[in-house]
């Protein structure tokens, strides 16, 4: 389902595997030689960057100049889609039940768009693509009604899905999937609802250097 949008812009644009090196003689147990014992040291896992300052700064910028007035968030507030060292992306539901999303960098925001009309949430289950956000990668924001995503795959390979938050009094759940670059095709979703499961395909864009095929 596609919705009409209006946009605004501001000043800134958005195992290691350890080797045990064992050797074994005929009929003997596998033991390292005293003089040729292999030693390996796993490299420490780097700590994720602290993005608190980026999130605080971009939230303030959005609430000051972008997510304001008629486009201000309702009771849910700004919902974080993704943060990276130079910016963050958000989604929110306005007080009159419209959906908005934006990427924010520097002191301002970019890519801010909102649906013109409230997004209808019916009684039936559905999956809706909502928006493409350009972050430090390529993010597809989408929603499911009356159901939850339990897993996703791209061409049979597992794909991480981020739960962003809820809208429509909790009936509609917002999710995001991220790719390193522009991706076309569709991804396969496994959904849970009322104790049962079902499958659905989420259609991506029509162009891109990478193709994701639902299997």
Write the layout of secondary structure elements.
Blueprint: E1 5-8, H1 52-66, E2 79-84, E3 87-93, E4 99-105, E5 110-115, E6 126-134, E7 138-145, E8 148-154, E9 157-158, E10 161-167, E11 172-179, E12 183-193, E13 196-203, E14 210-212
Parallel strand pairs: 12-14
Antiparallel strand pairs: 1-5, 2-3, 3-4, 4-5, 6-7, 7-11, 8-9, 8-12, 10-11, 12-13
Number of strands: 14
* Helical fraction: under 10%
Assembly state here?
Answer: single chain
Q: Give the averaged pLDDT, no decimals.
A: 80
Backbone structural class: mainly beta
What's this entry about, in short?
The protein is mainly beta and 215 residues long. 7% of the residues lie in helices and 43% in strands.
Attribute tags:
single chain; 215 residues; mainly beta; 5-stranded antiparallel beta sheet; 5-stranded mixed beta sheet; 7% helix
What do these coordinates show?
The protein is mainly β. Helix content is 7%, strand content 43%. It contains 1 helix and 14 strands. A 5-stranded antiparallel sheet has the order 1-5-4-3-2. Strands 8, 9, 12, 13 and 14 form a 5-stranded mixed sheet that branches. It has a 4-stranded antiparallel sheet with strand order 6-7-11-10, with no helix packed on it. The longest helix has 15 residues, at 52-66.
